[in-house]
Amino acid sequence: MTRITVTVDGSTFTDDVEPRTLLVHYLRETLGKTGTVIGCDTSNCGACTVHLDGRSVKSCNVLAVQADGHEVTTIEGLAQNGELHPMQRAFHECHALQCGYCTPGMIMQAIDILKDNPDPSEDEIRAGLEGNLCRCTGYHNIVKAVAAAAKAGE
Ligand code: FES
Ligand code: FES
Description:
Layout: E1 2-8, E2 11-17, H1 23-30, E3 49-52, E4 55-58, E5 71-73, H2 86-93, H3 103-116, H4 122-128, H5 139-151
Parallel strand pairs: 1-5
Antiparallel strand pairs: 1-2, 3-4, 3-5
Bound molecules: FE2/S2 (inorganic) cluster (2 copies).
Protein name: (2Fe-2S)-binding protein
Pfam family, one: Fer2
Keywords: 2Fe-2S, Iron, Iron-sulfur, Metal-binding, Oxidoreductase
């Protein structure tokens, strides 16, 4: 076992983990952060996307030990003082979900896109989301939501 200390959604946790434990399993099974979901086991779907030191990563592709000493934000850490994050609000207002399974990862990735490019074109949004799959194929409203959040200056 290896001892790690990670800040997740603003709280610091110290735990002993197997060196092979994936970050997504640590988040879900040790910390109970089940808002981050697993859609594949091949790093393809993006459902498990979180932020590691402010940048999006697929948490099924990162070892928990790699997060030692770092800061992780999950979908559960976005709302502040009971207020949804503007990207969450945009997804809600644009009906950018069907079953909702891909939504946590989509939102985390969408926030990351706007960090680099606050005013993306539709093509740039689609390219930025290409690592995130929606089995319900609800891409049109997802792209609309990201554009709406960008327009709102988020
Ligand atoms: S569960 Fe991580 S990419 Fe699919
Ligand atoms: S809304 Fe169902 S997978 Fe995207």
